[in-house]
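Appendix C reproduces, verbatim, an entry submitted by the partner laboratory led by Prof. M.T., so that reviewers can inspect both the input and the predicted structure.
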Amino acid sequence: MEKGISLVPRVVIFLAGVAAGALTLSRRAKGGAVDRAATEDLKNSIASLENRLAAQESANASRFTKIEARIEEQAGKLAEVPSTAQIVAAMEQLLSKTMASLDDRLTVQAHSIEVLKTTVSQTDSLLERVLESLDSLQTSSDTSGIGDDVLLHPTV
């Protein structure tokens, strides 16, 4: 692209030279003598054209330099952005850690529930034995002949 743009000014200069040559030839063919004023005017036009082409080349070079700098800046920014594969891998790792943590918590809760069931079962069993013991004490005290009044009002 840059090579094509650098050829444009050369082609224009070449065409200006061809035009100048054609004008010179046509004037020689008509009168045989070259008009100095026309030649000077033609030289001034060519010089002006060359100056404008040089200014245009300079402006184009400046624009291309700015564009290249921006492209390099964008490439640097793009290099800093993680790829899709890196993002997916990070998400998978995060999800894996979260699932492992959740699994651990559920395991601890299941263990706590089992311990609680065992404790409740042991408490029920103990309470049942205490009640049976109380019933057997009450039954044995009723059969021994001591009345309820004595148990309720002990003598000191």
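The radius of gyration is 54 Å. Additional entries are available on request from the coordinating office.
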